[in-house]
Design brief:
Mean pLDDT: 91
Number of domains: 2
Domain WYL: 2-53
Number of helices: 3
InterPro entries: CBASS_pafABC_assoc_protein, WCX_dom, WYL_dom
CATH class of the largest domain: Alpha Beta
Number of strands: 10
Helix content: 10-25%
Domain WCX: 80-159
Organism: Paenibacillus nasutitermitis
Protein name: WYL domain-containing protein
Oligomer: single chain
Length: 164
């Protein structure tokens, strides 16, 4: 068990965690861990950790948990929404390489290489997906949920206002 000082986008905090492992995705290193404060699993970006020291907390039995399955142990809380996004062939390739497994997004690929995403996602993750799909440009076309489309419009309005 370790106590780490961690800086997220919103907070600087100290957390007692039980790391499961480390893996790289999209140029970042990630550490899935059991968080004693949240009593649930969390994914931490390693570059946001500021310091680490040993903790006196007792380990939780996580012998069956590893980097390949830790996300299946996450307790989903809060409302979920249906995601439906059409993808060009380039959009499919980018989703395959950039959407990390923690989001449990299944990519459906057609014979011509185009595809779609059709999954349930936590409503709380709309800002993340808004940024992601804006980054795909015309290689993605979000059809649902309406809340995600609203979030993306707000983000694009702010960006447009920045360059007036």
């Amino acid at each position: 068990m370790v106590r780490m000082k961690y800086e997220s986008k919103q907070h600087k905090q100290s957390r007692d965690v039980q790391p499961i492992g480390i893996y790289a995705s999209n140029g970042f290193w990630y550490c899935p861990a059991y968080c004693f404060h949240r009593r649930d699993f969390r994914l931490f970006r390693c570059d946001r950790g500021r310091s680490v020291e040993l903790s006196k907390l007792e380990a939780v039995n996580l012998t069956q948990v590893h980097t390949g399955n830790w996300d299946s142990y996450i307790e989903e809380k809060g409302p979920v929404v249906e995601l439906y996004v059409e993808l060009t062939a380039t959009g499919v390739q980018r989703c395959e390489s950039e959407l990390w497994p923690a989001h449990k997004i299944q990519i459906h690929v057609r014979e011509d290489g185009t595809g779609w995403l059709g999954n349930q996602i936590p409503a709380s993750s709309l800002p993340f997906f808004g940024q992601f799909f804006i980054g795909l440009g015309t290689d993605s076309n979000v059809k649902a949920p309406d809340g995600l489309i609203r979030v993306m419009r707000e983000m694009l309005d702010k960006l447009r206002a920045q360059y007036r």
